[in-house]
Each structure stands twice: as structure tokens, then as C-alpha cells.
Amino acid sequence: MIELRKVSHSYGDRAVLRSVSLRLTERRIGVIGANGSGKSTLARLINGLVQPDTGQVRVAGLDPVREPREVRRRVGFVFPDADAQIIMPTVAEDVAAGLPDRTSDTAQRRVTEVLNRYGLGDHADHPAHLLSGGQKQLLALASVLVTEPDILVCDEPTTLLDLRNVTLLRRTLDELDQRVILLTHHLETLRDFDRVLVMDEGRVVFDGAPEAATSYYRELMATPW
Ligand SMILES: Nc1ncnc2c1ncn2[C@@H]1O[C@H](COP(=O)(O)OP(=O)(O)OP(=O)(O)O)[C@@H](O)[C@H]1O
């Protein structure tokens, strides 16, 4: 379980999260909200990339600030900027990088399996930085999923994907045993989710079923500044 207790965070004097309390137990959780409403900051708290100014975060009872390695072993994070997530020269090496014994036959078999699953099988020896934007997003997802985290946090993983790959990603998320927390502006991706949070100005302003949450969000966005 992921728990936030009265968590606040500011960048300088800009308050970005304001006393957010949540218990996240569902298998599929979506987070939506306007640009700058605090979604990425909330996600980054979960694996200790951002620290709360006040309040507490617990992931399976662990404190991401004090036990970042333990937490990051359990929480896979797909960043919005897939380029920043590429750490090795080739596609296959990048996927293998997260595995403890990356040169073993077992690891290599696993890499091939994962690349095939994400439509990157023909690109194994391709320079990772030369993939298309959408392929890089798929690579980022593959590189995280190969490590089999308990929880997957995806920050806008579909922005550059074409329709076929949005469908592939949706199906992939659907089939995963892991808990998924998905931050997205693609509201239809959340249709079958268990729970959707709507964020506005650093607060969770709606928390419920996908249809009700997306209606709430559409109405919120229709209100002029
Ligand atoms: N490292 C940082 N330093 C200073 N300000 C930051 C930093 N990261 C985010 N912010 C600010 O915090 C606010 C919330 O940002 P955050 O990325 O959490 O929003 P978001 O809801 O994910 O937005 P988007 O939908 O545009 O990705 C924004 O105003 C942003 O400019």
C-alpha cells in the first residue's frame, strides 16, 4: 500500500502540494489534472525523487526518503522524457541494464522476450537514442518492466505514441499484475481503471470512478481562469 499523510511540498515559495492525504490500494489508479497541478510532484514523492516538506509518505511501510534503494526496487518509474531514461548505447543493452546479471543467458532471454513484447525485437542492436520518440517511450517502459517492480508509476507515457502503440500500452497496463499509477492527459486510457484522482492547484479535488472523475475534470477545465 502507498500512503501519504498530510504531505505538502513547495518549490521555493510556490506551494505545489497542499496537505495531500491518500491511501492507494487499488490495482489501477489514474491521476489527471491541469498542467502544473502537481501530478508529477505527487508521483515523484512515491519513489523519493521529491521529499515532502511536511507530512509522510510510506510505500509498503517503507520511507522513500530514508530507504530510497528499497523503495526504488519496488517502484518502477517511467518518466515523461524518455530520452532522459536511456542510459546505454543500444536498445538491448538499455533493457538489460536493470537486471542484476545482465550478461547471463537467462537475462539475455528475458531481454529478447521483453523487446518482442513491446515491438522492439527488430531494434535490439539499434542505437537507443536514434529510436523515434514513441519507440523511446516503449523502450523506457520495457526497461522498467524487465525488472518486475511491484508498482509501476507512469508519468505521461503516451504523449508521443501513435494509435497502435497507445492501444499496445493500454493493453500492456491492463495485463500487468503490478499495481499501476498512471498520470495522463489521455482520459480514455483510464476507462477501466479502479480509481482516478483529479488534481488542481496541489490538492486532490476529486477521487472516484473514472467516468465521474473525467466528467469532473472536463467541467473544471471548462471554467475560465
Ligand atoms: N524542480 C522544480 N523546480 C521548481 N519548480 C518546479 C519543479 N518541478 C515542478 N515545478 C513546478 O511545480 C508545479 C507543479 O509541477 P508538476 O510537474 O508536479 O505538475 P504536473 O501536474 O505534473 O504538470 P504537467 O501536466 O504539465 O506535467 C509547476 O508549477 C512547476 O513549474
From TrEMBL:
Which of UniProt's keywords are assigned here? ATP-binding, Nucleotide-binding, Transport
The terms under GO molecular function for this entry are: ATP binding
Q: Where is the ABC transporter domain?
A: 2-222
| SUPFAM superfamilies, alphabetized | P-loop containing nucleoside triphosphate hydrolases (SSF52540)
Parts of the chain that traverse the membrane: none
Q: Show the PROSITE patterns listed in the entry.
A: ABC_TRANSPORTER_1, ABC_TRANSPORTER_2
Q: Which InterPro entries match?
A: AAA+_ATPase, ABC_transporter-like_ATP-bd, ABC_transporter-like_CS, ABC_transpr_CbiO/EcfA_su, ECF_ABC_transporter_ATP-bd, P-loop_NTPase
Q: Which CDD domains match?
A: ABC_cobalt_CbiO_domain1 (cd03225)
Which Pfam families does this entry report, sorted A to Z?
Answer: ABC_tran (PF00005)
Q: Which family does it belong to?
A: Belongs to the ABC transporter superfamily.
- Please state what the protein is called: ABC transporter ATP-binding protein
